[in-house]
Design brief:
Blueprint (H helix, E strand, L loop, with lengths): L5 H11 L6 H12 L5 H13 L3 E5 L5 E5 L1 H18 L9
Helix pairs in contact: 1-3
Amino acid sequence: MHDLTGFQRDILYVIAGHEEPHGLAVKAELDDYYEQEINHGRLYPNLDDLVGKGLLEKGELDKRTNVYTVTQRGVREIEARREWESQYLEDVNAPTTS
């Protein structure tokens, strides 16, 4: 996960949170999150990179629509990232004493 861009991590998280989303569904989620339109020329090459890294699988819903699922490796990478993040965020929610 350390070699992914923030955008690629966001794609991976969006796909992990949905059951076999297609590219346009991922785009819609990211459009909302980034509060701007994500163009196809940015999204699809990054999806292909994640497939190439073995973090996503790409399947066909029909002849025009691809669906994406997170691989077991992708799930392990997400879990490892969350563990890494949590070590730094534990104190964020702790009450402060003065």
